[in-house]
Specification:
The chain has 158 residues and is of the alpha+beta class. It is built from 6 helices and 6 strands. Strands 1-2-3-6-5-4 form a 6-stranded antiparallel sheet. Helix 1 crosses helix 2.
Length: 158
């Protein structure tokens, strides 16, 4: 999948651009732009060494959604107990990694625009990328983060 037109993203969707065009954990960016954020797990699929978690992330103050996330997590890559804490609560994966002192780096980022131009998803952008340990090439997870529409993000920005 080729990257979407990043000039359009930067020009017409500045909040989405800020949230998608960085190499850090999404957690830090969401908190910087929207304050406290929490996750609600919508589905989970455990397949041996891989667990897929679907969730919606919300601005805690308003209860409004910010993004849909899909994490395909490499279970053996995680410290003991971290996955249990992720699946048992409303914590963001990035927050748990930060608390555990796990430094990460992102690779293979692809920015996409959801839906057809002018359609119901015309203002919705997302990204797919791989999350690796900062030191080495150990895969932690594959990430897909799809934001809500730009107009909603602008209203919620603190």
């Amino acid at each position: 999948m080729p990257n979407a037109d990043l000039a359009i993203l930067k020009r017409d969707f500045p909040v989405s651009h800020a949230l998608l065009m960085h190499d850090d954990l999404m957690t830090r960016e969401l908190m910087r732009h929207f304050g406290a954020v929490h996750a609600v797990q919508t589905a989970i699929e455990d397949d041996g060494d891989i667990v897929t978690r679907w969730s919606t992330l919300y601005q805690t103050a308003t209860g409004e959604p910010l993004l849909q996330a899909t994490l395909v997590i490499n279970k053996p890559a995680l410290p003991e107990g971290l996955l249990d804490r992720l699946l048992d609560g409303t914590r963001l994966f990035g927050s748990l990694l930060i608390e555990a002192g796990i430094a990460v780096r992102m690779t293979d980022r692809t920015i996409y625009r959801a839906g057809p131009p002018g359609g119901v998803y015309a203002g919705v952008w997302g990204r797919r990328q791989r999350m690796l340990y900062a030191m080495g090439d150990g895969l932690i997870c594959d990430v897909d983060e799809c934001l809500v529409e730009e107009a909603s993000l602008r209203k919620l920005k603190t």
